[in-house]
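Chapter review: from sequence to fold.
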Amino acid sequence: MKTEKAKEVNQETETQVNPEIIADVQRSETEVIRISTREYKGVSYVDLRVFFKDKQSGEYRPTKKGLTVKKDQIHEVAKAVCLAEEAFAA
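The token string follows.
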């Protein structure tokens, strides 16, 4: 029983750990905003997350700072971001 539960958790974690990276947007010398797609429990998401550069390995690691958006909400969020960009331009 414990083994089956552990396998389920590992499979879910593996799905979360291996997203398809769409883009990295440089935020600072040590941080990027990573935009990726992933599937979790059969639901598709876009994930916008801050990653920091690990000093020892030089690899980017995720932080808790971020936003996960369901597939059917992407258009609405993108539209709102465009409106925010227009507000800065005015």
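Two observations follow directly from the output. Confidence is low (pLDDT under 50) at residues 1-15. The CA atoms of residues 81 and 87 lie 10 Å apart.
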